[in-house]
Amino acid sequence: MLYYLKKYPFSLLVIAVILYLSFFKPPSTGLNTIPHLDKLVHIAMYFGLSFILWVEFFRNHQEKGNPLHGWMGAFFFPILMGGGVELLQAWCTEYRGGDWLDFAANSVGVILATLFSLYIVRPYIIKV
Questions:
Q1: Which own/partner pairs from 120-123 qualify as long-range (CB within 8 Å, at least 24 positions apart)?
Q2: DSSP string spanning 72-117?
Q3: 114: alpha, beta or left? (left if phi > 0; alpha if psi -120 to 50)
Q4: What is the tens place of the pLDDT at every residue in 4-58?
Q5: 89 vs 19: CA distance, rounded Å
Q6: Are 125 and 55 in contact (CB under 8 A)?
Q7: Can you give the C-alpha Rg of the chain in angstroms?
């Protein structure tokens, strides 16, 4: 665990923030009237998570990194985490509900971050 704390500190912080935001009871605001705003928030949260995971992976494994580890950690993990969060919201809370569209928005954020990270960011971090 200490290895991940040293190598992926920002990623772990983002994971903790997303988990907190996913399970706290949100206050009632006027923003609830904006249609699909929550889907944009889901896309942004999971874009940020996947993006920071890719950046820290590239930074830590510039020459020797196994690309499969990057895909497992920065692509598949956030998607699985998003699905798990939606299931836990449905099963373990009374004030939140699991939503397939939220899961889809999470996945879209991960896909966009992966494309952006591989084609825009990676060339600047790793000299390919």
A1: 121/51, 121/54, 121/55, 121/58, 122/54, 122/58
A2: IIIIIHHHHHHHHHHHHHHHH-SS----HHHHHHHHHHHHHHHHHI
A3: alpha
A4: 889 999 999 999 999 999 998 877 776 667 777 889 999 999 999 999 999 999 9
A5: 11
A6: yes
A7: 16
Please, are residues 69 and 61 in contact by the beta-carbon 8 Å criterion?
Answer: yes
CA 49 and chain centroid, separation: 3
- What is the pTM assigned to this prediction? 0.89
Residue with tokens 């397939």: 100
* Look-up of token digits 């040293």: 6
Q: Which residue has the higher pLDDT, 8 or 67?
A: 8
- Confidence band of 104 (pLDDT split at 50, 70, 90): very high
Place of tokens 């896309």: 43
Lookup: tokens for 85: 């969060």
